[in-house]
Amino acid sequence: MLKADHGYANARVRAMKSRLLDQSVFEKMLGMKDLSEILTALDKTSYRNEVHEEVLKAGLLVGIEEGLRAATSADLQKILKIIDLEAKNLIEVLLGRWDVQNLKTILRGKHIGAAKADIISSLAPAGCLHDSVLQELAEQPDIRGVIDLMATWSIPYSKPLTAELGKYQQNLALQNLEFSLDKFYYQNTLARLTGRSLDIQLVREVITREIDLTNIMTLLRLTRENLAPEEKEKYLLAGGRRLNWGSLVKLAQVQDADDLIVALEKSVYGKVLQEGWQLFLVSGKFSVIERRLENQVITKNIALFRADPLSIALVIAYIWAKLNEVVNLRILIRGKEVDMPAKMIRQALVLV
Amino acid sequence: MEELHSTRSELLFRRNQILLAEQGRDLLKKKRDALLMEFMKIMDKVLDISEKLNEQAKASSYALAVAKAVDGIITLRSVSLAVKGDIKVDITGSKIMGVPVPEVTKTSISRSLLSRGYSIVGVSSRIDEVAETFEKELDTIIEIAAIETKLRRLGNEIQKTRRRVNALDQAVLPVLREQVQIIQMALDERAREDIFRLKKVKKSLEARKKSQLLREATSSA
Q1: Which CATH number does the domain housing residue B74 bear?
Q2: Is there a domain that residue B184 lies in?
Q3: Residue B9 placed within a domain
């Protein structure tokens, strides 16, 4: 396999990794009574400055969240600056999901006739599409206008949307437009990730693992909908890491959730699904299974810290570790805010 | 103040009024008791539903907190833009012991996964659960709103009935009884005066008769 040298970037990322919080910090925070105690604990972390600045502006809860977001955004920007162009392109592929989400937000807003300000306030400050592009799209009077403008500006996502527009105008089913975007994002991303370099293979691994997780959760959720197998297939994504199209088609024929767990027993996800299923039997929520699967995906992606030290693996692992850390902190503060029992908070955390 | 005529017919009229007021009071007491029974029955239901609502509110706030933390507020806001729907509620009326109460019939607000409007790919099951728990909570809120309105109406009617019973017991009946007593006393007094007057007339007639007899006796002698 071809290998690019990311020595300098990896050295910087290793230094940044040393500032990630370890499990004991989360254990301590779990025992804290309220947000002010968590704020004090955050004083000893790398989030200190951003969090304090935002808390002064927006109050405790929103301030801490904004501070975490600002610190993460600064970290990601720093990484994009220190990595070379090839690695940057690959990382941007991973960030492309935010473009899909932002486009969906605009389509959803236009679907219900939301005000432009509401749409813009719901856009994520990430992804490759520039803010001005998104704002101009949000200015359009309706979904057709948005898609037409995207086509005029040759934004690749206009292709699947243009193909689905006719059907949308007939049945006003937004989910078909949204699904065409999701499908296109994964197909397009995988098509871009061809090549023999280790870096490309690593990013491909991350994306294909995500496709597996999405497909498993889609199949599980659809067991509650009593759909025919061929109907279920419409919601599945091709290109998974461990579950190819053939096995997905077979799994789509399974009608019950417990049978689906049994059918996936021998797959690489079998053990985690079994653990999740035990939790599901208590809570009746599919989200506990999803969180277990996410836990596995996050753990695998963070384990890339131990992969080839000269590849982009460290950068990918760091991004996942950082995003997971922020999510864990958010779970803690949101959980404390609504007096969620510590057991439930712990169940939602992914401590790697 | 009402003018009181101390007459026998007035006395009879007042006595009839007392009888009527007592009958009315007894009827109102029965109505109050029946309403109270109905009230307690609904009260038990309201307590059950409000307990259910508390549990649902807790579950939905936990689900929302986790979704906000893991999926992010922006994702939630975005998905909420896709979810559009009307809540159809039919309100008709019925009567409990003559008290008009609303009857609310609604179709369930809970929707299936595919009818919420967003693509399930790219939206986590956590967000499904937020939608699901809030839909259930909304169902319960509408249910409890209808029953609480019923309860409030019954409560008002019980209070109104209790006030009427109290007014009859403590104001109308004592006044009527007092009036009857006054009329009775006045009539008795008048009867006594009449007897006294008659006695006096009789005495004077007898005295006149006696003097006439005396006069006749002296003239014949």
Answers
A1: 1.10.287.3240
A2: no
A3: no
Helical residues (DSSP H) of A243-341, grouped into ranges? 245-252, 257-263, 270-283, 286-302, 313-337
User: So what's the architecture of A197-307 in CATH?
Assistant: Up-down Bundle (1.20)
C-alpha B95/C-alpha A133 separation (Å) is 61
The Cα A206–Cα B221 span in angstroms is 159
pTM of the predicted structure, to 2 decimals: 0.81
Answer yes or no: are the C-beta atoms of A292 and A273 closer than 8 Å: yes
Interface membership of B75 toward A (CB under 8 Å):
yes
pLDDT tens string B125-181: 999 999 999 989 998 998 898 889 889 999 999 999 999 999 999 999 999 999 999
CB spacing of B74 vs A327 below 8 angstroms: no
Alpha-carbon gap, residue B203 to A306, rounded angstroms: 138
* A117 inside 8 A of chain B by CB: no
- Asked if residue B101 belongs to a domain, the reply is yes
Summarize pLDDT for B63-112 with one digit per residue, the tens: 999 999 998 887 888 888 777 777 788 888 888 888 888 888 877 777 88
CB contact under 8 A, B121 and A224: no
> Which residues in chain A are closer than 8 Å to B136, comparing Cβ atoms?
none
Token duo for residue A186? 């994964």
Residue spans per domain, chain A: 197-307
Question: Does some domain include residue B6?
Answer: no
Q: Would you say A9 and A315 are in contact if contact means Cβ atoms under 8 Å apart?
A: yes
Range(s) of the domain holding residue B155? 20-171
Half-sphere exposure (CA, 13 Å, Cβ side) for B164? Answer: 18
* Partners of A256 in the β-ladder: none
Instruction: Reply yes or no on whether the pLDDT at A143 is more than 50.
Output: yes
Structural domain count of chain B: 1
